[in-house]
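Marked as duplicate of an earlier ticket. Keeping the data here for the record.
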Amino acid sequence: MFRKIFLLISATVFGTAIATIETEVGAIREGAYKYFYDSSVPNACESVIFLGVGTAMSVNDYNNIGTEISTGKPIVTVIVDHNPRFFVKTSNRKFASYYNALVPDLQSRIPACANTPNPKILVAAHSASGQAAVKALPKLEPKPSGFIGLDPFRITEGKMKIDPSLPSLEWGFAKTTCSVKIDQAAKPAYSISSSDHRVFYRVDNVAQGISHCVFTDKGCAIVCGLKKDGGWVIPAVAASIHTFVDAIVNGEGNIEKSSFESDVVKDGKVELFVNGDDPNAKSEL
């Protein structure tokens, strides 16, 4: 049984609504999903982002980021749970089975995609889904056009790799938070990506009191709560994703550092590393 919700973003310009976000919860045999798209945007399914949930999380825990990514953009955000009946989300086999089953059904399950036979597909993952997604990448059909890691965990440099043809965007932290070690998360995900097209935003989480689950609506249950100063993170992540998707759709994955130097970078909240930049050469914040 599907539960359908319509959200109207309460912003208007001369009486015209800026965005109408439509979202629906659904399921296939391989897992659960919740999609978001802006029906006021022409060709709203130009790109589709599959965002895997973290440990013990559900598709209903990422409403803010799903809405932020899709608002005003031709991007469908699909929050995906490849193991909805269990808290562990690290299985690459289940992630691959889920992706390979859902992608062919996009046109029948998501109204925005009904007339878009071949949207650009990007795989994204928060926390434990990061391990599942990265290991699953070689098994995904059709092959995605990019990877987005939201403090993906556990990533093992030397034992894992990201296809060098795939552009990669990572968000992570300067210091370990919620037991997610920085050397097993976004930094190594950046390191195992091609230096031809990769981006890494490293948040100064110590000074700002920001945790690993800042990408969720309310934190990760009792394991990792939200801190008080991270409200800027989701809008900043969404803006970086918009730039990243534009680079893939319009520039064939050509990543230019100047395009990713957002206000949060200029304000010193985040360090930015692109392509050949080495995060190990910088001092930890």
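See parent ticket for discussion. The chain has eight helices and twelve strands.
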